[in-house]
Amino acid sequence: MLFVDSSAFIALNCPENSNHQRAVKFVKSLLGETAKITTSFLVVAEAATEIRKRLGYQAVLAFLARFEKEGITVFHVNEVIRLNAKDMFTGHEKVKELSLLDCLKVATMHYYGIHKVFTFNAELDELKVVRVPKN
Predict the structure, then answer these.
(1) How many angstroms separate the CA atoms of 102 and 126, rounded?
(2) For the chain, is the Cβ count within 10 Å smaller at the N or the C terminus?
(3) Domains, the chain, ordered by start
(4) In the chain, at which residue ranges do the beta strands (DSSP E only) sit?
(5) Which candidate, 72, 90, 125, 75, places its Cα nearest to that of 117?
(6) pTM beyond 0.85, yes or no
(7) What's the Rg (C-alpha) of the chain?
(8) What's the angle, vertex CA 5, arms to CA 3 and CA 7, rounded to 5?
(9) What is the dihedral of CA 64, 65, 71, 75, to 10 degrees?
């Protein structure tokens, strides 16, 4: 399984994004693979907000419609994930850039046994996940 972060969704949908070409190239490399694509509702909300700001209402509607069409599994945060994320967040005192949202993403991944994340967010390296594409 592959977990997709908001930074990847934003890069894929916003041509002016500095990671757009890398994101498109990575997705093309996945064609033909049978990896199950997953994300969380919090990631969808974060990406949708940013896409709406940058590209407008019609673009965000198209983005949201793709989840059902493309069969992307969207997980929701439960109490176990929330508590694990809080422990993760409070346990990384020296990482100033780490957000609680980052910890919620990784706690969701851990809960569902997912190890790989499609992201351009380097802060996730602190949380011991496999980030793709590689730099």
Answers:
(1) 10
(2) C
(3) 2-132 (3.40.50.1010)
(4) 2-4, 37-40, 73-75, 116-118, 130-132
(5) 125
(6) yes
(7) 15
(8) 150
(9) 30
